[in-house]
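Fold it.
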Amino acid sequence: MGAVLMAAVSIRGEAAGLGESLSEGIATNFDQTTNTEEETKATAEVVWTGTPLEGYVNIGIANVEDNLNIRSEADTESKLVGKLRKDSACEILGTEGEWAHILSGEVEGYVKAEYLYTGDEAVNLAFQLGQTVAKVDTDALYVRMEPTTEADFWTMVPRGEELAVIEEQGDWIKVDIDGEEGYVAAEYVNVTSELKTALTITEALYGEGVTDVRIAICEFAKQYVGNRYVWGGTSLTKGADCSGFTMSVYRNFGVSLPHSSRAQAGCGTKISVSEAKPGDLIFYGNGRSINHVAMCIGNGQVVHASNSRTGIIISNMYYRSPVSAARIIND
């Protein structure tokens, strides 16, 4: 084992000096097929620490144009438990015929192996796809308009949320939240390079007294989770922005909404965020005006077209500070 660890340290040292060429062949030094399972894990832990491959031993990456279905069993008739988005990563736990048993994020299940990049190809691709994120490591993090504590903050983000990093600026990190730029103090986040992982498919807990039409609206909206974000878009399948998403969902139920988050905030009946029911709209701002809209789906969650990095996703309703809510249907 000592020899393996020494080899791993040597490989990582070489990799550090390669810079961008890291993605052009370091995988050839890491043989998952000839090492024992223990040796492979030890090597991976040392070699990939601080890279997009950290935590992976036998990585697979989705080779699809849209989403790859993850099923509970190695059978096309089994329950759908998640979606592996294009270029998302998974740990390959084993194979059963034409199926790969995988773990990605919180989802474990089976996918058709033919739709995965594997081996050296997956390792090299991972370095190209890794995205720099800042994971919040404090209970409530202020997002400020400028990189100084004297600047106003326009939202707060809870512990555990991951923010897309635009630029590291010493004591401050420039981040993207739903397409808006802001600054967070570097001491309160952990910056890492990560790969996208699977999306879970869970049924929302709606609670008592929620009408069938509200459930129908939410279920309709959730089926598009994993699809693309496109600025100015209104297509639920080809891409939509935040207001285009909510507009198109409600259009399916005969309700007309404007294509603007600020304009939608003036529709229906204004309610407090704490009163929100599934189907109600939740609005977020940047300190100056409303700039984002999401749909409440119950259980403290919203579904929304977030940004080009994540697409249509489900988030905690308080993933940033909501500023208002609107009830579009009165039942």
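The longest helix spans residues 2-16.
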